[in-house]
Amino acid sequence: MSKKQSETNRPTHAIWQVQGEGDKARWSRVGAAWLHGDKKGANLKFDSIPLNGRVVVREITEQDNASGEYNAAAAEGGAQ
Questions:
Q1: Who's near 18: CB < 8 A, 6+ residues apart?
Q2: Other CB atoms within 10 A of residue 74 CB
Q3: Are the C-beta atoms of residues 46 and 15 closer than 8 Å to each other?
Q4: pTM for the complete prediction?
Q5: What pLDDT is attached to residue 5?
Q6: What is the DSSP code (8-state) at residue 28?
Q7: 35 Cβ contact list (under 8 Å, min separation 6)
Q8: φ, ψ for residue 19 (rounded to 5)?
Q9: What is d(CA 69, CA 63) in angstroms, rounded to the nearest whole number?
């Protein structure tokens, strides 16, 4: 697999369960998302399904990539 292919298989966004508000909010990563080529939608892969709180999708930053922060969904591949 070429470097370009492996980079495109990385998720573009992380999916978080957020419980609570403000400084007391607890964020737990529950999945990953891959934007479609036209950037009008995304494929989502959940490691767990939150039953309470709210779900937040955030773009993965270079800092996240540098720290190696990604979950089992990301390791398994995702949509192409």
A1: 25, 26, 27, 53, 54, 55, 56
A2: 21
A3: yes
A4: 0.71
A5: 43
A6: E
A7: 12, 13, 41, 42
A8: -120, 130
A9: 9
Report how far residue 30's alpha carbon sits from residue 39's, in angstroms, rounded to the nearest whole number.
Answer: 22
**Which tens digits make up the pLDDT trace of 29-78?**
999 999 999 999 999 999 999 999 999 999 998 777 666 555 444 444 44
φ/ψ bin of 79: left (φ > 0), alpha (ψ from -120 to 50), beta (otherwise) = beta
SS3 22: helix
Element (H, E) at 44: strand 42-46
Dihedral of CA atoms 80, 67, 50, 17 in degrees, nearest 10, equals -120
